[in-house]
Amino acid sequence: MSASTTQPVPTPPEEPARPEDLIAEPAVQGDLTAELKQVARPFGKPTLVLAGLLVLALAFAGGAWTHAAFGPSSTASTARPDPAAGQPGGRTAGGRGTVGTVEKVDGSTVTLKTGQGSEVTVSTSDKTTVGVTQPGKLSDLKPGQTVTVQGRTGSDGSVTAQAIVAQPGR
After folding, report:
1. Model pTM?
2. Radius of gyration, alpha carbons of the chain
3. In the predicted model, is pLDDT for residue 59 greater than 80?
4. Which of 7, 70, 82, 103 has its CA 20 to 30 A from that of 139?
């Protein structure tokens, strides 16, 4: 026999992979605990910052809605009543006085009833001017008369008058 006539060695046919072989090898190469910790962090820093900003915006919007729904009406307290229309009521713009009907005059104090029905105590001094179509005195003011008071409003709602002007009778 000659050396050039060698025959190839037959290889056995490959068998398909068995399930036991698949689970015998690790699915992850490396540290499984580190990979699980990385996957377990659901939110990054940018997500947390955006969520915080969203909460702040919602809180602001909720506060604005609550104030609009339940807060005091600014139109009722700052509207300047038109004395010519014969509708006394409330404080004038800027909290610098009030308009109402004289309920009583007691010494240097005048009690008014506003158009909204609340009573306002008006304190006067020697420097307070009183106008009744012409200059007058506190004793010229009579219950039922509509007056405009200019002065400072105190924290308790009372007014320190600088001037009181009686409106012409209607």
Report:
1. 0.33
2. 44
3. yes
4. 82
